[in-house]
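Entry for the shared binder. Reason: the reviewer on the internal report wants the predicted structure included alongside the sequence.
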Amino acid sequence: MATASKAFSGLKRAFQVGRDMEQMGGDISRWMKASSDVDQANKTAKNPPWYKRLASGDSIEQEAIQAFTAQKTLRAQRDELKNLIGFKYGSKAWDDLLAMEGRIRKQRQDEVYAREEFRQKIIDIIAVILFFIAVIGFFSGVAYLYMGNK
């Protein structure tokens, strides 16, 4: 969210001093990437892995609240950006920007988020294996102690 806010502040300043869209491309791109990251974090917060639900307790609710407030902040920034672009360049420019945002989101989904999901699946598998090893070890230890006492 910090990246999105910083990029958005840069965009507002750029509009105030009259820079054109080509000069603001980097700020717009950073804001869109950060916006996409916040959306992905929101999706992840809605459906955390099972071991996170067991281990973290209150932090899941805290992550959900942070994701919700970040999403609302981004929505307000998006509305303000739409107005700024609409006043300066017209509604066609906003439509072009949305098309560009769609391409950026798709690219990030294919590249970044797919890697993160794969990494998360590996962590999930390792967590399940470790859990079963612990359970088997516990029951083996109990059986060993039980047999040792006979």
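Summary line for the report: The chain has a mean pLDDT of 79.
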